[in-house]
Amino acid sequence: MFNKRKKIIEFALSSLLRKKYKNLAIIIVFSVIISIISSILFLTNSLKKEAFQLFVDSPAIVVQKLSGGRHELIDIAYIDEIKKIAGVGEVQPRFWGYYFDSLTDSNYTLLAIDSKKDKRLDLIKGTLPEKDGQCAIGAGVARVRLSVINDDMLLPLSEDNELNVKITGVFSTDSNILTNDLIVLTKGDIIRFFDMPEGKATDLTVEVFNDGEVATVAKKIKRMFPATRPIQKSELVRTYDTLFNWRGGMMIVMFVGALAAFAIFAWDKATGLSAEERREIGILKAIGWETSDVLELKFWEGFVVSILSFLSGIILAYVHVYFFGATLFEPALKGWSVLFPQFTLLPFIDTYHVFIVFFLTVAPYVASTIIPSWKAAIAGPDSVMRS
Amino acid sequence: MEDIIKTEDVVCIFNRGLPDEMVALRGVSVEIKRGEICVLRGASGCGKTTLLSLIGCMARPTSGKIMVRGRDVAKLTERFLTEIRRSTFGFIFQQFNLIRELTVFENVALPLYPLDSTFLQIKHMAEEVLGKLHIIHKKNAPIRQLSGGEQQRVAIARALINNPEIILADEPTAHLDSKLSNDLIDIMVNLNKEGKTIIIATHDPEVFEHAFINRTIFMKDGLVREVRTQ
User: For residues B137 and B158, what is the distance between their CA atoms, to the nearest angstrom?
Assistant: First the structure.
């Protein structure tokens, strides 16, 4: 059996080589379609993965104050009241805001953190700001501003309000979604720059000892301060998940067209063999090949073409997404972001999705190769006598 | 001598029940003895090729019996038909039916691929048969580079590689000039001397007037009109 299989595989490979231009064209078209679909899946998964990194150490509840439906500064005095709720741990004020840099046409997120307490931002080259007049910046900010450690950074807000700080650290690119557009300042610098009134913060973070009580605590905060909006971590996770699934789904719908085009191509192949292919099958049958031998030959032909296309499609997608930043889909999938600076994703591949792509592409192609050959092979070899 | 092939009242109808139904054979009964050279003779469309196909287990008759070495093959499954085709028959086709992009060696070795032979066994068998037909020097040449006569020799080599007992040839000289036709006849005679039964469908006088023929079956309109033995 081994020798037989080996000879049939060898013959399948030589058959493919005999029609190398036709097969190369199929492999190219097939690879491009697989790479488009895989790119969407890789990109969506990586964005999700990156986005969820945000939530690993994020607080159980973020409390924002609303006025006229819009987010406004919150009283720090709320902290003491919230702390009285049973099950609540630490409650901290956060000071942050957005800044549009007209010099580089980029949006930055300005955030005050306590360098001694904050454990999330440990991926830094250099140090976090330890006193007023210092800052740490994300890799995206460093790139667009052409800045390195020890450079000065000037952020003008108005004619009489500007911030001039020294860069003490640059975040590594390993946590891009978290830090790409980030400028970390001291609390004093943020309050001064955004002209925040005394006793106010951007929002409050609330830790809850028992995860099962988060929803109850959020309700109590809402009851206690009706003008606030307590946002639970689970709500944010769900929102991100839906957002990426929807965007990924939207892209897949768009490229279903491409897949349909391939399906038509495969169907066309499935419904008709060329006269030459029929003749060849007839010859094989006439000289003693069984129908199963012909089908095995055609299986290997289809399998080799589709597996080559699959592998090259996956590799193309990987290079496209993780080396070229998914240039083709970036506007659609990342358009929601304030991260105008260029963005590099952490490689993340979900094997489940790779298998889905495999079964949606390789299996139909192999079937489309085998079915018409089967039809020709069972028709009887005598047709070759009459050619 | 025993009958190696015997047909009884074989009818073969193509596209049965369709508007283009065609009756190719209308009740053919013939007997061919082991070791004979038999010619099926008749004009185009008389049913020679159809009869050859049925004898060679490449198709099934609509009705009637086809006995190959005493066994009725008409009702055998596809698997058994293939096995009989592979072990008993060697086919030489009018159009040679070689795969043009393959080399001489590959074409000749092709019938052995589905068997569990090693490459060395295949190589040995293919070279032996190519040597016998004096075409070994072209073994690595693609078919498209060969002349008509050379292609015919390759087709014969392929038919012989399984060492079949019966050679079926359909208009084997149709594309050959007289010298090459004579060469082919010589090959057939030599194969017959080795004990092979040879059945040739032809309307070429150079073949059917040759002295080596033991039996001539005259066909017309799907029927056997006359059988001559010598």
Answer: 16
Q: Which residue in A110, A93, A213 sits closest to A155, CA to CA?
A: A110
Helix H or strand E encompassing B127: helix B119-132
A96: pLDDT strictly greater than 60 = yes
* Distance from the B51 Cα atom to the nearest Cα atom in chain A, whole angstroms: 11
pLDDT at B90: 92
* CB contact at 8 A, B105 and B97: no
- Chain A residues touching chain B at CB-CB below 8 Å: 1-4, 7-8, 11, 14, 18, 279-280, 282-291, 293, 378, 380-382, 384-387
pLDDT tens-digit readout, B159-199:
999 889 999 999 888 877 888 888 888 888 989 999 999 99
- Integer Cα distance of A232 and A217 in angstroms: 10
Q: What is the DSSP letter of B152?
A: H
| pLDDT for residue A245 is more than 80 | no
User: Using CA atoms, how far apart are residues B144 and B99, in angstroms rounded to an integer?
Assistant: 9
* Cβ neighbour number for residue A318 with a 10 Å cutoff: 16
Strands, DSSP E only, in chain B?
Answer: 3-14, 22-33, 37-41, 63-68, 71-72, 89-92, 166-170, 197-202, 215-220, 223-229
- Domain residue extents for chain B: 3-229
Handedness of CA B140, B144, B150, B154 (dihedral sign): positive
Q: For residue A386, which residues of chain B lie inside 8 Å, CB to CB?
A: 49
Looking at residue B158, its amino acid is R
Q: Do B91 and A286 touch (CB under 8 A)?
A: yes
What fold is seen in the domain B3-229? Rossmann fold (3.40.50)
The gap between the terminal CA atoms of chain A, to the nearest Å, is: 33
Using alpha carbons, list the distances in angstroms from residue B128 to A163, B53, B133, B171, B198: 92, 28, 9, 26, 21
Q: Which residue has the tokens 């993340």?
A: A348
Q: Which of A86-95, A141-150, A330-339, B112-121 has the lowest mean pLDDT?
A: A330-339
Residue A216 or A47, more confident? A216
Residues A262, A97 contacting (CB under 8 angstroms) = no
B108–chain A nearest CA distance, Å: 10
CB pairs under 8 A between A and B: 86
The residues that bridge with A110 in the sheet, in sequence order, are: A97, A183
